[in-house]
Amino acid sequence: MSDFLIHTIDEVCWMKNEWPVKAQAVGGRHYREDMVDQNFDSYAIEYTFKDGTKFYMEGRTVPGCYNEFASYAHGSKGVGVISTSGHVPGRCRIYDGHNLSKDKLKWAYPQPETNPYQLEWDDLVEAIKNDKPYNEVERGVMASAVTSLGRMAAHTGQEISLDDFLHGDHEFAPEIDKLTLTSDSPLMADPNGKYPIPLPGIIKNREYA
Questions:
Q1: Taking the C-alpha atoms of 121, 125, 128 and 131 in order, what is their torsion angle to the nearest 10 degrees?
Q2: What is the pTM of this model?
């Protein structure tokens, strides 16, 4: 979920030129059986921006189910395909109305298109070779933080603001600054070798017991 959502969040926030201010979400475990991990099999997150507009993310990691890696923008008069095929190629296009049929196509980015991941490397290498400023740390950190905000909203069952998430006292990895190669993990398995799972609505202020 996280890799997909980080890329999608970055796309949407690039268009909005801002980050969402809050999130609420649902999720569930369906076929974990003997898996020892803490993840959900499905997530559905509603992000809200300060002007009230919404960004909806839906993710499922269940083998055998319908599979799609894409982002869409729905408006009152039509739909825009932000990206498809895992962004490579994105095949960005705009349709008149909400049916993605060829006769309703109004615009499409010319093909073939350059791999966006290669373009990122090209920009970085050019900046290094020509001693140009190039720093995407803040954007990368924020995209990852907004992803974690959505996951925490699902794992706790609460609506959480970005401000509360960034300034809360919850530590995802307590005392990580003291972690060494011989330290115990910040989160330990129980006697059966399993890790604590999210309990939405029961544990409301952190992701795990």
A1: -110
A2: 0.88
3-state helix, strand, coil in the chain (%, to 5): 30, 20, 50
DSSP state of 68: -
Q: Which helix (H) or strand (E) holds 139?
A: helix 137-156
- Please give the pLDDT value at position 58: 93
Which tokens belong to 60? 């499922």
Rg (Cα) of the chain, in Å, rounded?
A: 20
pLDDT along the chain (209 residues), means of 10: 63 83 95 84 96 93 90 94 86 96 96 90 96 92 93 96 93 86 89 91 89
Q: Determine the pLDDT at residue 176.
A: 87
Closest CA to 113 of 81, 73, 160, 150: 81
How far, CA to CA in Å, does 119 sit from each of 7, 47, 90, 93, 164? 15, 28, 13, 20, 35
CATH for 2-178 (3.40.50.2000, 3.20.20.150, 3.40.50.1820, 3.30.360.10): 3.30.360.10
Helices (H) and strands (E) in the chain, counts: 4, 8
**Rounded distance, CA 18 to CA 50, Å?**
9
